[in-house]
Design a protein that fits this description.
There is one protein chain. This protein has four helices and eight strands; from the N terminus they run H-H-E-E-E-E-E-E-E-E-H-H. The protein is α+β, with helices and mostly antiparallel strands. The strands form two sheets. Strands 5-2-1-8 form a four-stranded mixed β-sheet, with no helix packed on it. It has a four-stranded antiparallel β-sheet with strand order 4-3-6-7, with no helix packed on it. Strand 1 and strand 2 form a beta hairpin. Helix 3 runs parallel beside helix 4. The longest helix has 30 residues.
Length: about 190
C-alpha cells in the first residue's frame, strides 16, 4: 500500500464518524441493489427563526447526513427501516441551505419552499381574485336576465378547516364585490 492510500484509509473513519454515519458505515457490507437519491425540502417557520427539513425517497443509501450552510450537520442514519422507507423530518434547525449527503449515492440539495403563512396569503389573494371574476360573470348574467333580481351570492360550504374557511371567505368577498360591480354597471 503506498503512503497516500494508507493516509486516506486512516482518515476515512475520521470523516465518516463526524458525518453521523458512525462506525457501522466503516464496516458496512455491499450496497443494496437499488439506491435512490430521494428529494428534500426546507420550509421556514412562520416567524422565520427556524426551518423544517423533510426528505423522502432516500432508500439504499446505507446512511446519510444532513448538512446546513450555517455549518451544522446531523446524522440521519440508515433511513431504509422507516415507514415510509427513506423518509425523515428534522425541525427547529437554523435557517439556511441544506443538502443530504448519502454514504452510497449522490448529494441532494434540498429545495426551499414557502412558509405556510406566505402560502396562505397567496391562496387568499388568488381566491379573492377568482371570486371577483366569478362574481362579475354572475352579476352580469343576473343583470341581463332582469334588474329586479337580487345580487347573486356564492354558495357556502360546511365543515371547512380554519385555513379553508379563510380562503372561502376571501372568495366570497371577491365574488360579492364583482357581482355588485357588474350588477350596478348593467342595471
Amino acid at each position: 500500500m503506498n503512503r497516500r492510500t494508507r493516509r486516506l484509509a486512516a482518515l476515512f473513519p475520521l470523516v465518516v464518524v463526524p458525518l453521523g454515519l458512525g462506525p457501522a458505515a466503516v464496516t458496512a457490507g455491499a450496497a443494496p441493489a437499488a439506491v435512490t437519491a430521494g428529494s428534500c425540502t426546507v420550509k421556514p417557520s412562520d416567524d422565520g427563526t427556524t426551518v423544517t427539513v423533510t426528505g423522502t425517497g432516500f432508500v439504499g443509501t446505507r446512511g446519510a447526513a444532513l448538512r446546513g450552510s450555517s455549518g451544522n450537520a446531523e446524522g440521519l442514519g440508515n433511513l431504509d427501516g422507516f415507514n415510509p422507507p427513506g423518509f425523515f423530518t428534522r425541525s427547529g434547525l437554523p435557517p439556511g441551505d441544506y443538502l443530504v449527503q448519502a454514504q452510497v449515492g449522490t448529494v441532494v440539495r434540498c429545495k426551499a419552499v414557502r412558509a405556510d403563512k406566505e402560502t396562505d396569503k397567496e391562496l387568499v389573494r388568488a381566491a379573492r381574485d377568482r371570486g371577483f371574476a366569478d362574481g362579475v360573470k354572475a352579476g352580469k348574467a343576473a343583470a341581463q336576465e332582469s334588474c329586479d333580481n337580487d345580487t347573486p351570492r356564492p354558495r357556502h360550504h360546511q365543515g371547512l378547516t380554519a385555513r379553508q374557511e379563510a380562503i372561502e371567505k376571501a372568495y366570497e368577498q371577491g365574488f360579492l364585490a364583482g357581482a355588485t360591480s357588474a350588477f350596478d354597471k348593467f342595471c
